[in-house]
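The instructor's notes for this session suggest beginning with a concrete chain rather than abstract definitions. Hand out the sequence below and ask the class to guess, before any prediction is shown, which regions might be ordered.
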Amino acid sequence: MFEIVRYSEERKSEWNDFVERSKNGTFLIDRNYMDYHSDRFADFSLMFYLKGKLYAVLPANVKDNTVYSHQGLTYGGLIMGEDAKAANTCVLFAGLNDYLHRQGISKVVYKAIPWIYATYPSEEDLYAIIKVCRAKLTGRDISSTVFLDGRIKFGELRRRCSRKAAKAGVEVVGSTDIDSFWKVLDDNLENKYNVAPVHTCAELRMLAERFPENIKLYVAILNSDVVGGVLVYLNKQTVHTQYISASPEGKRCGALDLLFDELINNVFSSYKYFDFGRSTEDYGRYLNEPLIFQKEGFGARGVCYDTYEWDV
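After discussion, reveal the predicted structure:
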């Protein structure tokens, strides 16, 4: 019933146009974003046609005999148009399993797109992978999200620190100076966790140039120095914090508290959701309690990022 086609470069415009019109796609699924690290993954993205019309796309890569959706992305489930419905989506996954079996694939690891990134209900895939594929939930990370319409008030600690930063003279501004923020971020991660950011500074500059309307930097300035900042990914209705960091001075004066006060209550108040991202590791088995406590202090509450697996 469905024609399944491997993605190739000549289908790039068709892929990107579909993602833009879809009910649950984000700019992370645009090939101009996905392919910045194409050298690190063996692409196995698929396009599904019904009666000659593109019905859905699946960003994916393959490693050994396993297909992942997609290891280079935070999420990467089935991207569907508004006409996608439950029964057809079940047929699609039955066809997908047959296709993968013929390709010698034995297993699928599937990261569903969290519902806050959809502009219309789009969990037909979650039903289908259980009904048709007998998928099992193997990971449940928890993110923290502010509902901007009727948002919960900041906790007293966050409000107090925001006032402290304002009194100290901290200013919050939009910026294109990724290098200065990167220095704060890299130093912080190195000193605290002995790790480096997922993206390099050059990659972030390149992605911000490719997606100037979607990738924005906001920094906290004190005495002309960047003492904190956040790189945000802007989707149709959801703001996602990709990187958050503060210098030792920024932490002492509460710079991030003032920064998020400004972003949540003013800059992005017209959006629906402000997503701080996950506070978990190892598919949710480890919870960073101090980190999620800080996010919850801004009025954020839990949204799950789920991972499923099934044998083909």
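Then share the key points. The chain has ten helices and 17 strands. The longest strand covers residues 136-147.
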